[in-house]
Design a protein that fits this description.
Largest sheet of chain A: 7 strands, parallel
Number of helices of chain B: 10
CATH class of chain A: Alpha Beta
CATH superfamily of chain B: Glycerol-3-phosphate (1)-acyltransferase
Shape of chain B: globular
Number of domains of chain A: 1
Order of helices and strands of chain B: HHHEEHEHEHEHHEEHEEH
Radius of gyration of chain A: 20 Å
CATH architecture of chain A: 3-Layer(aba) Sandwich
CATH class of chain B: Alpha Beta
Largest sheet of chain B: 7 strands, mixed
Helix content of chain B: 25-40%
Number of helices of chain A: 12
Order of helices and strands of chain A: HEHEEHEHEHHEEHEEEHEEHEHHH
Strand order of the largest sheet of chain B: 1-9-6-2-5-3-4
Helix content of chain A: 25-40%
CATH topology of chain B: Glycerol-3-phosphate (1)-acyltransferase
Oligomer: heterodimer
CATH topology of chain A: Rossmann fold
Strand content of chain A: 15-25%
Strand content of chain B: 5-15%
Number of domains of chain B: 1
Structural class of chain A: alpha/beta
Shape of chain A: globular
Distance between the termini of chain A: 44 Å
CATH architecture of chain B: 3-Layer(aba) Sandwich
Largest interface: A-B, 31 and 26 residues
Chain lengths: 319, 271
């Protein structure tokens, strides 16, 4: 009887982006006391017998069947396709239209908690950025490159639903660079490389958060029903080229002026980890202020920068 | 990085190392703050500034101890001389004072972050992009911030306009009122003569995307510099119309003007 009661009281959570290392960390933290269903837009991932896992396009009608079958209490949306993946059109379909479908279904099926993982890229890297950017700052990224529009649009959608449907209790997280074992984003690839490109004469300030700390942050956010938008970043900073040095990377400088030169070069080289549309992020700083999240959710990152960089130095080809 | 390490080994003594480390700074585990200040880079900057301050410009500073030892402070000065030499000298004077030194932050033109190498270097030495949000966050952190309310109007002025204060923006006063920061006026005499400009080629400046393109000799003259520091001024945070804020700004401007006149009367020779 007690077992049955306990089983009934376990919250049902839909987690998107199951193929990502961060998502799997979040699932591991929640699986003992929650019933999780994992989905991914790109591939089906085996996460153990107790966790149903699906490869599904959110825009397909069959996606709604999951909501009917599992009666979710909450959604953690970590399935944003990164700007280095797929084509612009497919990303738009997944990130913008897919998110809209997800939020519509969440509203229709009475979901009480939604956490959306966004990125600090939405702020955009421009020369006039102040440091410690607040959540209220304008999102300039869409003006920099068409490749970042879907990330900004995803946020705009989440914001509209946040105010239109307060019962969804949407929390949007904008983390700084997520790095560490298993992370496959651009910055992690760069830190793990033997030779890393830099823009000559530019070494912007950057923030890094360890994947374990970020997983803790997502779980903290999910567990406290506090609507809103929050930056997630530790109170520690380092210049890009100094970080590369600590990771044991050799740098190769790309001419940085006039601005057209690096753009043409990067467009020609087509480096996956150093694409031309992210060029500004290696030139100008986007330092975010994560103090509101730390205060509101009692978040304290535990892995210092030195530990993060030691991992990359010791594992030049991270998994 | 390589250049910084080399300069550091050549310029930074163990004594200076200790001296800078003892000054309280809100920095992270790798010696950086959010604006790019770097504790090691600062030591190199400090050593270079010492040469400029003591040997090249032979600066005479009066009243440096009037700058409060802690809490938010806006150090407000007249701007001149095409390059931000005045900011470097005021910064050094405060960082090198015997009694409770502080490392102040200087607000710099928006053009600098776009310049390769120089932008990052200035940030490492403590300079910060002149943005009201930056200034507000630093005052909230209890830092001392050097501001030049004349902006490029002051630094880009011609030699014939020397020691004439240009229009002051009101932004610094709003920030001082909001963050309860003391305003310390500073009169800088001597920097006007370091790079005397006779004209400004505006079309060239527009083409290059820089604030001004002065017609001047490509040399920085070793003019003797006098820094006169005034008494701290405090302004309450009452809701007042902009007109009264401007009056307060004029009050600060008058104090700086007096300090400039004092410096000019004390000055015995240009070099």
């Amino acid at each position: 009887m007690t077992d049955l009661k306990q089983k009934q009281s376990r919250p049902h959570i839909l987690i998107t982006g199951a193929a990502g290392a961060l998502t799997q960390q979040v699932i591991n933290r929640l699986r003992d006391h929650c019933d999780i269903v994992a989905v991914d837009f790109r591939e089906q991932v085996y996460l153990g017998d107790s966790i149903p896992s699906y490869c599904i396009d959110f825009n397909q009608r069959s996606f709604e069947d999951l909501f009917r079958r599992y009666k979710f209490d909450g959604v953690i949306h970590m399935g944003r396709i990164m700007s280095s993946q797929l084509t612009r059109m497919r990303r738009y379909n997944a990130n913008v239209l897919g998110t809209q479908k997800l939020l519509d279904l969440s509203h229709k099926y009475g979901i009480k908690r939604v956490v959306v993982l966004s990125t600090f890229h939405v702020y955009g890297a421009v020369a006039y950025n102040p440091a410690l950017i607040d959540e209220e700052a304008p999102l300039k990224s869409a003006g920099l490159s068409a490749d970042l529009i879907d990330s900004v649009e995803l946020e705009n959608l989440a914001n509209i639903y946040l105010w239109r449907y307060p019962d969804l209790n949407i929390t949007v997280l904008r983390p700084c660079n997520i790095v560490g074992p298993g992370v496959r984003n651009s910055i992690s690839t760069l830190l793990g490389s033997e030779r890393t490109p830099v823009l000559a004469g530019f070494s912007p300030m950057m923030q890094f958060i360890h994947i374990d700390d970020m997983a803790d942050a997502v779980v903290l956010a999910y567990n406290k029903t506090q609507r809103g938008i929050f930056n997630v970043a530790p109170e520690d900073w380092v210049a890009y080229q100094h970080a590369l040095k600590l990771c044991g990377c050799k740098t190769f400088p790309i001419p940085s002026i006039p601005p057209l030169v690096p753009k043409v070069l990067l467009d020609t080289l087509k480096l996956r980890s150093f694409p031309s549309y992210l060029m500004a992020f290696f030139k100008y700083p986007v330092v975010i202020d994560g103090r509101a999240f730390a205060r509101e959710f009692g978040f304290q990152p535990r892995r210092p920068l030195k530990e993060i960089f030691r991992y990359y130095r010791d594992n030049k080809k991270p998994v | 990085m390589g250049l910084t390490s080399y300069l550091r080994s050549k310029l930074v003594s163990a004594e200076l190392d200790n001296q800078i480390d003892r000054i309280r700074k809100p920095i992270g585990t790798l010696g950086y703050d959010p604006w790019g200040f770097n504790n090691d880079g600062m030591k190199v900057g400090f050593s270079l500034a010492r040469q400029l301050y003591e040997k090249y410009f032979r600066v005479e500073t009066t009243g440096i101890d009037k700058i409060p030892a802690e809490g938010p402070v806006l150090i407000v000065a007249n701007h001149s001389g095409q390059l931000p030499i005045d900011g470097i000298l005021i910064g050094y004077a405060l960082a090198a004072r015997q009694n409770k030194p502080r490392i102040p932050r200087a607000m710099i033109e928006r053009f600098f972050p776009t310049v390769p190498y120089l932008g990052n270097l200035l940030n490492e030495f403590g300079a910060v992009l002149g943005d009201p949000t930056n200034c507000a966050k630093m005052l909230a952190n209890g830092e001392a911030v050097i501001v030049f309310p004349e902006g490029v109007r002051g630094s880009g002025k011609l030699y014939r306009d020397r020691y004439q204060l240009k229009r002051f923006g009101n932004g610094f006063m709003h920030l001082a009122m909001k963050y309860n920061a003391a305003i310390v006026p500073v009169g800088v005499v001597g920097c006007e003569e370091t790079i005397p400009a006779i004209a400004n080629i505006k079309p060239l400046a527009r083409m290059l995307g820089i604030p001004y393109a002065p017609v001047a000799l490509p040399v920085v003259f070793p003019a003797k510099v006098h820094l006169n520091i005034g008494d701290p001024m405090h302004f309450d945070n009452r809701e007042i119309p902009e007109e009264q804020v401007t009056e307060r700004v004029e009050h600060v401007k008058a104090a700086i003007s007096e300090l400039i006149d004092k410096g000019l009367s004390e000055r015995k020779r240009l070099f």
